[in-house]
Amino acid sequence: MYRDPYLLKVAKGEACLLNISPKCLGDEGSTTVAAHSNQLMHGKGKGLKAEDCYTVWACYKCHTLMDQGKMDSDALVEAFESAWIRQIEAWREMADNICLKPWKQDACQRVMAYLRSKHG
User: Fold this and answer.
1) Which pLDDT score, from 0 to 100, does residue 17 have?
2) 10 contact partners, CB below 8 Å, separation of at least 6
3) Measured between alpha carbons, how far is 97 from 82 in angstroms, rounded to an integer?
4) Among 28, 47, 108, 115, which one has the highest count of C-beta atoms within 10 angstroms of its own C-beta?
């Protein structure tokens, strides 16, 4: 089970990548967190969050809709998967950015290495 509190911390201040709420806060960033996937295939279970590598940056409005909304489950899976592709690209860019704080760059490098080892 992949856990990295620093990876979760990287989300603070970033733009929402989930973008599912009509009231999405976009790039405002003050409420952005790493929202965990709700899919069983990502490690989600009763009382158990998915692995931290299956998170996307989400504002409060989108995160709430994802976890508690009345959104169609197939549409939600599609929205999460689309956001996760954008999330991987954001982590990849941060992993290569030598201007970032070292802990942020390190967290992004770790998750990218883990995903490569898991998915090839």
Assistant:
1) 98
2) 34, 94, 104, 107, 108
3) 23
4) 108
Nearest-angstrom CA–CA distance, 2 and 53 = 7
Count the Cβ atoms, other than its own, within 10 Å of residue 16.
27
> What sign results for the dihedral spanned by CA atoms 55, 19, 83, 32?
negative
83 contacts 24 by C-beta, under 8 angstroms: no
Yes or no: say if 32 and 11 are a contact pair by the CB < 8 Å rule. yes
Which residues contact residue 89 at a Cβ distance below 8 angstroms, ignoring those fewer than 6 apart? none
Looking at the DSSP bridge assignments, the partners of residue 45 are 48
| pLDDT tens sequence across 30-79 | 999 999 998 767 767 778 899 999 999 999 999 999 988 778 889 999 99
Which SS3 state, helix, strand or coil, does residue 30 take?
Answer: coil
- Beta strands at 33-36 and 55-58: parallel, antiparallel or unpaired: antiparallel
96 phi and psi angles, rounded to 5 deg: -95, 0
